[in-house]
Every structure is written in C-alpha cells, then in structure tokens.
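Sequence in, structure out. Go.
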Amino acid sequence: MSKETISPWDGAVSLESPDGKFQAEIKDTIEIAMGAPTSGTLRLSDGRQWESCNVSMIWSTDSRYLAVPQWTRNRNQRLMIIDVIEHHTFHAKGEFRVLQLEKFQDGIIEGIDSPIHMPKQVRIELNEILK
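Output:
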C-alpha cells in the first residue's frame, strides 16, 4: 500500500492531480451502512460532478485519468474512469465488493477488492476499459 492510498472508509477527501492542474474532491460523505465504506458526490475542479462515489480514488501518473469506485443500487461498486482532457466517462466491466485503489501507472490500475474480508488483488488495463 502506497502512502497515497485512500481507504474506502475515509471521510472527506481532496486529491490533486500529479501535474497540479486538476482537483478531485468528495465532501459530506455518508456510510452506506453502519460501519461500511463511504459514499458522496465527486466534484472536479472544472465543475463536473458524479453521485454515489467512494473516496478511494486515484489519478493516473500522467494526470489525464481519474479512477474512482462508484456505488451501484445493490451496494456493489463499479470502477469509473474519468478522462479529464476529453470529458468522457468510462466504466470497467463487472462489479466489485469494495475497491481500494492503490496504483494507476502506465495504463494499469491496481488495488484490492474487499481489503478487510477475503481480499483479492485487482489489476485492470485501461485499454480494456476504453474500448
């Protein structure tokens, strides 16, 4: 786990892109159930926003993409990728229990699905999402 890793149970988070040009922020989070991970509204510094996002987000090292877990209606998560340059949003295939994103470098997103109970390493290629 890197020092930049944000726990899915954290509260408000503000995360600057590596190049310093963008800011991603989730404030006023709520637990999705008692003692469960948090959910809130993601706001980018350019004014765009998305509901039902978890705070365990991470920027790509080139600052073009933001990866963020987003809650589904059945309390699972899907991985959302935001292209801050082209203003597009993509979703990875499948759902996860609770994502803890740890690294986003060279087009590879790495993390853990369900870090507390039966953890499973996750490795997702950005090219597969952008197809």
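Check: The domain at 13-130 is CATH 2.120.10.30 (Neuraminidase). The CA atoms of residues 92 and 129 lie 5 Å apart.
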